[in-house]
């Protein structure tokens, strides 16, 4: 009985002390103890990215540690409109307007791995879209990224978005990527994020010998083609069926 009283007394004392807690907490920096909604959201998205990388990218065979850490780093939710933010870390394409889409994360990782980039490489992307894949490349060590988008509004939005998210070194322009970007050639690697009936000749010309090219090729059914430029042409490999938006323009 006496014990029970002591317990009650101790409990009352604790309540009294914690009730006085503000006197013991540093009142000058409440932000240090309470997480802001923005910080909380960033943490939630980082966790979703981690899950995305483990379950849909690593589990399906992408193993390059640099590519995986780039996929962990780029905030894909910043590359879609608010309406789709919540789906940003699900493994599927999402609309970005003008009938175009941001690519599925797994495909982005897979294509990036197939490019086999080395520090110091210069890469050309045809089809900036949202700017997401360009950002993934920019996360790799010492990679120069050039990207072209044919839809003027998308080109402008992607440029602004890349700047805002902090990818200030990516060179982006509006234009028909079918002709490549000869001013910065030769490239160590190039890739198309839109399907072409065949590999555009101008892009092959702008690759150095030993350079790699990844492209969805085909009008109906598409195949992901990886080609390496040799002295006397292209060595091609086919990497399975894919579905990309069609290349526009020439
Ligand atoms: N890499 C993008 C995927 C965009 S989808 C991303 O991560 O979001 C493919 C893009 O290619 C579309 O935005 C489309 O407008 C663009 N495109 C189509 N034909 C093109 C061409 N001839 N030159 C440049 N971009 C083109």
List the helices and strands and how they pair.
Blueprint: H1 2-19, H2 30-33, H3 37-58, H4 65-73, E1 94-97, E2 100-102, H5 105-114, E3 122-126, H6 132-138, E4 144-149, H7 152-165, E5 171-174, E6 187-192, H8 201-205, E7 207-217, E8 222-230, E9 233-242
Helix pairs in contact: 3-4, 3-5
The chain binds S-adenosyl-L-homocysteine.
S-adenosyl-L-homocysteine is lined by residues 100-103, 126-127, 129-130, 132-133, 148-151, 154, 176-178, 193-194, 245, 247-249.
Query: How many strand segments?
Result: 9
How many independent structural domains?
Answer: 1
Q: Give the strand content.
A: 15-25%
Question: Which regions are unreliable across 5 or more consecutive residues at pLDDT < 50?
Answer: 6-33
Give the termini separation.
Answer: 92 Å
For the record, what CATH class applies?
Alpha Beta
CATH superfamily label: Vaccinia Virus protein VP39
The strand order across the widest sheet is 5-4-3-6-7-8-9
Largest sheet: 7 strands, mixed
Helix run count: 8
Under CATH, the topology can be stated as Rossmann fold
What is the percent of helical residues? 25-40%
Mean pLDDT: 88
């Amino acid at each position: 009985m006496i014990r029970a009283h002591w317990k009650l007394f101790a409990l009352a004392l604790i309540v009294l002390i914690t009730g006085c807690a503000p006197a013991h907490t540093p009142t000058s920096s409440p932000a240090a103890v309470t997480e802001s909604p923005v910080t909380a959201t960033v943490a939630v998205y980082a966790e979703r990215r981690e899950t995305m990388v483990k379950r849909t990218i690593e589990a399906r065979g992408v193993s390059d540690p640099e590519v995986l850490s780039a996929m962990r780093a780029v905030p894909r939710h910043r590359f879609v409109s608010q309406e789709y933010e919540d789906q940003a870390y699900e493994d599927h394409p999402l609309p970005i307007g003008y009938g175009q889409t941001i690519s599925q994360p797994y495909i982005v990782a897979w294509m990036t791995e197939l490019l086999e980039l080395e520090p110091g490489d210069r890469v050309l992307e045809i089809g900036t879209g949202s700017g997401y894949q360009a950002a993934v490349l920019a996360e790799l060590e010492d990679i120069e990224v050039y990207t072209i988008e044919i839809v003027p509004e998308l080109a402008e939005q992607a440029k602004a978005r890349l700047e805002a998210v902090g990818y200030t070194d990516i060179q982006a322009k509006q234009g028909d990527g079918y002709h490549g970007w000869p001013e910065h050639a030769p490239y160590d690697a190039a890739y198309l994020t839109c399907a072409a009936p065949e590999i555009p000749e101008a892009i092959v010309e702008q690759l150095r010998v030993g350079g790699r090219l990844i492209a969805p090729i085909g009008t109906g059914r598409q195949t992901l083609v990886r080609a390496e430029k040799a002295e006397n042409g292209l060595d091609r490999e086919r990497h399975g069926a894919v579905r990309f938006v069609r290349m526009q323009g020439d």
